[in-house]
Amino acid sequence: MKNLKNILFTSILLCFATLGFAQDSQKSQSANGSHYKGKGQLNVGLGVGFSNGSTGVMADYEFMNLGQDFTVAAAVSYYGWSSSYAKYSTIGLGVRFRWYADRVLGITNNKWDVFASGDIGFGISNTNYNDGYENQGGNNVSPIYWGIGIGGKYHINDKIGLHAIIGTGAQFGITFGL
Q1: N or C terminus: fewer CB in 10 A for the chain?
Q2: What separation in angstroms does the CA of 51 have from each of 124, 128, 157, 170?
Q3: Distance (Å, rounded) from C-alpha 143 to C-alpha 140?
Q4: pLDDT digits (tens, 9 = 90+) for 154-174
Q5: 2-16+49-177: which CATH number, 3.30.1480, 2.60.40, 2.40.160, 3.40.50?
Q6: Residue 172 dihedral angles phi and psi, to the nearest 5°
Q7: Has residue 87 got a pLDDT over 50?
Q8: Domain range list for the chain
Q9: pTM of the predicted structure, to 2 decimals
Q10: Is the Cα dihedral 33, 35, 38, 39 positive or negative?
Q11: Is 18 helix (H, G, I), strand (E, B) or coil?
């Protein structure tokens, strides 16, 4: 368990250190005048996993434009769930790629962003079994996880907004312009 805490602490520090490398949070503008806000956005929210009924929290920070309409984000999440015989939790660490479809869809209102997203990373899982006699459990690191989704953001102003994603799970949260 001590190893798990050290890995978690180090991973969280690395994710938040990414914030220090943020450059500007200016709106991106394409040739046809459509806008999307991507780089410089911190997205924090609550999530539900569809495969096991897990609930949790997630955060990602879009730190880089990968190309026209694409961003890359460092992502971290925590999800937990239980069954009649065990309690499970997973800490996910990875990257989230977003393709903003504003330009393709002709969305010129800078209050709205529509995107497709894909996640890839690894998970640190903990399981505690209760066999009726004694508690048992263990930790492991999954070699890879992935997820896909579609979503949208509504920007109340340049500094705060709301976001939602549905796909391999569902997320709803707040977006901060940094």
Answers
A1: N
A2: 17, 19, 35, 11
A3: 9
A4: 999 989 999 999 998 899 999
A5: 2.40.160
A6: -140, 135
A7: yes
A8: 2-16+49-177
A9: 0.75
A10: positive
A11: helix
| Dihedral sign computed on CA atoms, order 148, 152, 158, 162 | negative
Q: Is 7 helix (H, G, I), strand (E, B) or coil?
A: helix
CA distances to 76, 86, 111, 161 from 157, in Å = 25, 44, 8, 7
pLDDT of residue 37 exceeding 80, the answer is: no
Residues 6, 28: Cα–Cα separation, whole Å: 38
Beta bridge partners of 151: 115, 165
Dig out the tokens for 67 from the structure: 């190309």
Tokens 């991973």 belong to 11
DSSP 131-167: -SS-EEEEEEE-S-EEEEEEEEEEESSSSEEEEEEEE
- Distance from CA of residue 77 to its chain's centroid? 7
